[in-house]
Specification:
single chain, 205 residues, two-stranded parallel ribbon, 6 helices
Length: 205
């Protein structure tokens, strides 16, 4: 089995290169908690590249406009419909910002109205490695990052044949996990554990 590679999707609109330390932090967690073999460097792949289809997991994030061109849209749909998994994280941690509105509109255009749905808090992704009985863990940005006290108690997803193909978060996990993994020892609880669940779900479902 090939080592796991954390793939970040580069798209032409918006800003795709957020949270630079997050991938290595999650890779460290995979090494610490699981037996999954990993490539220790993230790989950036353009969404319009055929290289994407070599990898089962990818990550897409940003703060700004998401507007795929024709090839990006085609690759995104083909990848997801053929078993690929995309974890999408809105770095604005809001519900009506530019990233949220534009990304959700892209999903409607590609997969149809209503394809992006709230998933229940007892979904398999919350039990794929660690157990999160209350659904998605809250981030510090939701609690006090921008003073909006906006806590999202659910995630959304597009499911293909009963399996998540696109997992979508407004919770800003990317920023929450964007720190040097050596600083985990100062945390009472490792807050990257849910990231392990997301990757393990993508690899095993």
């Amino acid at each position: 089995m090939q080592p796991f590679t954390f793939v970040r999707l580069q798209y032409r609109s918006g800003n795709w290169d957020t949270d630079p330390r997050m991938p290595s932090n999650l890779l460290h967690s995979l090494i610490e908690y699981t037996t999954v073999k990993v490539n220790e460097q993230e790989k950036v792949i353009a969404l319009d590249s055929a290289e994407l289809f070599n990898y089962p997991f990818s990550y897409l994030s940003g703060h700004r406009l998401v507007q795929f061109n024709q090839k990006e849209r085609q690759n995104f749909e083909t990848y997801v419909r053929n078993g690929g998994f995309v974890f999408v994280d809105d770095c604005n941690h809001d519900i009506d910002g530019l990233f949220a509105r534009s990304f959700e509109e892209q999903m409607k255009q590609i997969f149809g109205q209503g394809a992006l749905k709230k998933i229940p808090n007892n979904h398999k992704v919350y039990r794929s490695f660690f157990t999160f009985d209350d659904g998605p863990p809250t981030t510090s940005f939701e609690l006090n990052g921008w003073g909006d006290d906006l806590v999202h108690d659910y995630l959304k997803a597009i499911e293909i044949n009963g399996r998540i193909g696109v997992l979508y978060s407004n919770k800003d996990y990317g920023c929450e996990w964007d720190y040097d993994f050596r600083n985990k020892r100062w945390l009472a609880e490792d807050n990257t554990k849910f990231g392990v669940n997301i990757i393990m779900y993508a690899l095993t479902s």
